[in-house]
Design a protein that fits this description.
about 270 residues, alpha/beta, 2 domains, six-stranded mixed beta sheet
């Protein structure tokens, strides 16, 4: 039986001890996406969504130069005419949340992240960056409207910082340190520690009862777009859905075992 993730050419996909590692694998073009990668990433997200084996995901790019630089502009046909009535937004398939993946996704940013990369980072649950990582939005520099990507970032980054990034185009880059200050990333580490840190965090999350983790994730993503009272009501609903006898017993066993590792301080 096929799983939909066989014979991938633009993505490397592995699963080990409940952790899926998804690596964008087009380093010669800064891991930018073309139609093949869009199709393969769609299949990968669907597989992750439906696999009981997978409890957390690490998402990164091949090499040290770039996480992802958005669409591969060399694949845009010469003389292409934009038609808003027939345009297909790649964001419909790029991000994990757009595909209803409610397993935690840790993005490990290993270099440049710009443009369409924010479809991925905007829908990641935790973003960790290497010290040399940079972030920018090139749309206006190429005569394009910066719309979908900054709108996604506005849920994570203060409005003024998103606006500045959108308006400065390729002329200004946000450093990893600044990205952490404005809330785009939650941790900055040395490049040689990036994947180790992301993996450790994924293992920590995957060690918790899966039903509780996924219900918590779904609740908080849904609640952040609601007024406070409605968000609380939604939380009550997901509380009932996520509290299963099996998950609570798993948690109790972890508590009684006393074998949890010493917490990591960041």
């Amino acid at each position: 039986m096929t799983t939909g993730v066989e014979q991938l050419t633009t993505i490397e996909f592995t699963v080990d001890a409940g952790i899926a590692t998804v690596t964008l694998n087009r380093p010669d073009v800064h891991n930018s996406f073309d139609n093949v990668m869009l199709d393969e990433l769609l299949r990968v997200w669907h597989h992750i969504r439906h696999s009981d084996e997978i409890r957390a995901v690490v998402l990164t790019g091949r090499g040290d130069n770039a996480f992802c630089t958005g669409i591969d502009r060399s694949t845009i046909p010469e003389g292409y005419v934009y038609d808003p009535l027939t345009y297909d937004d790649p964001g419909k398939v790029l991000g994990p949340k757009s595909q209803e993946v409610w397993k935690p996704v840790i993005a490990a940013v290993n270099g440049m992240a710009c443009g369409g990369a924010f479809y991925l980072l905007g829908e990641a649950d935790v973003v960790i960056a290497a010290e040399h990582a940079t972030f920018f939005d090139p749309h206006v520099s190429y005569g394009l409207v910066a719309a979908f990507e900054p709108i996604l970032l506005m849920r994570r980054v203060p409005f003024g910082d998103v606006l500045r990034m959108a308006l400065t185009g390729v002329q200004e880059r946000v450093s990893a340190a600044t990205a952490m200050r404005i809330g785009l990333v939650s941790e900055v580490v040395a490049a040689d520690q990036l994947m180790t840190t992301a993996r450790q965090l994924a293992e920590t999350i995957a060690s918790q009862p899966a039903a509780a983790v996924q219900a918590t994730l779904r609740t908080l993503w849904a609640a952040r777009d609601l007024p406070g009272a409605q968000a609380t009501q939604l939380g009550n609903m997901f509380l009932q859905l996520g509290h299963t006898t099996a998950a609570m017993e798993e948690g109790q066993q972890l508590f009684r075992s006393g074998t949890r590792p010493k917490p990591r301080i960041r």
